[in-house]
Amino acid sequence: MRIIFAGTPEPAVVALEKLLASSHEVVAVITRPDAKKGRGRSLHPSPVKALAQEHGIEVLTPTTLRPGTEDGDNLRERLAELQPEAIPVVAYGNLISKDLLDVARHGWVNLHFSLLPAWRGAAPVQAAIAAGDDITGASTFRIEEGLDTGPVFGTVTEAITGTDTADDLLTRLAYSGADLLVATMDGLEAGTLEPQAQSGEATYAPKISTAAARIDWAQPAFSIDRHIRAHTPGPGAWTLLDDARLKLGPVSLTEGIGKQLHPGEALISKDAVYIGTATQPVQLDRIQPPGKKMMNAADWARGLGKNAEVRFQ
């Protein structure tokens, strides 16, 4: 089946690799334009573009898909020439205009990293961890005008462990979801798949802002643990020490340390750093001071000097 793949970040690379290895013909890739990165702010291609170029596949990088714009109109012209039968999508990152939804016979088929209608939106993996879900998964569905509301072709499930960060979970889902996406393309080509309307109560996972990643030490320890893991590695859970913003790595839950700590109050021992919450303290394992790399929390604390009083806000 002739397909055009739409995707941008690293998790989408796995799906493109699987599609390239399948019986389907990837005739082009749609991805976001090159972005400035690093200290030099030089332009870098998206991970999907880099892979497509390695395989000699045509890459389309419109800044917008809106009709009436140069980029949008050029894309429509090229899609009409390429005549894809389906357009699989993984984390593309651009709104798809209504008139484009019918360009391919089987439509635009999105791989979403949740069990729809749970966690519709931009950050389903982070939302599932933060909410304490035991099970999540991935779904393939036909894109329509609503936010992740289209009928579902198939799902796979994935258990969430008590130590999973967003990166851990997303990595596993990228692989199982990629297999699901290929199977969905196979089923569409064979004519054996009929999408089913979503059922159940919808929940939503909006894009995460830096402000939303701030740690609230007045929350229970289990909630803080989930919050930090959900925002690791990006955008990174953070807290304030005086006026300095520090990113924190995952914490360890404790059974108690023999001393009551107020929320945000730190107790520094020879080999560990404990921080108070609304319930029991948590042990801080990793910390990233401003302008530095992530480091061992005990090493960071020793650098503060003896009798240092630390209270995170």
From TrEMBL:
MF (Gene Ontology): methionyl-tRNA formyltransferase activity
Catalysed reactions listed for this entry: L-methionyl-tRNA(fMet) + (6R)-10-formyltetrahydrofolate = N-formyl-L-methionyl-tRNA(fMet) + (6S)-5,6,7,8-tetrahydrofolate + H(+)
Signal peptide: none
Keyword Transferase: yes
UniProt keyword Protein biosynthesis present: yes
Residue span(s) of domain Formyl transferase C-terminal: 207-304
Binding, (6S)-5,6,7,8-tetrahydrofolate: 114-117
Keywords: Protein biosynthesis, Transferase
SUPFAM superfamilies named among the record's database cross-references: FMT C-terminal domain-like (SSF50486), Formyltransferase (SSF53328)
Protein EC: 2.1.2.9
UniProt feature coiled coil, ranges: none
CDD domains (alphabetical): FMT_core_Met-tRNA-FMT_N, Met_tRNA_FMT_C
Pfam family, one: Formyl_trans_N
Annotated InterPro entries: Fmt, Formyl_trans_C, Formyl_transf_N, Formyl_transf_N_sf, Formyl_transferase-like_C_sf, Met-tRNA-FMT_C, Met-tRNA-FMT_N
HAMAP family named in the record: Formyl_trans (MF_00182)
Family: Belongs to the Fmt family.
Role played: Attaches a formyl group to the free amino group of methionyl-tRNA(fMet). The formyl group appears to play a dual role in the initiator identity of N-formylmethionyl-tRNA by promoting its recognition by IF2 and preventing the misappropriation of this tRNA by the elongation apparatus.
UniProt name for this protein: Methionyl-tRNA formyltransferase
Species of the source: Corynebacterium segmentosum
Lineage: Bacteria, Bacillati, Actinomycetota, Actinomycetes, Mycobacteriales
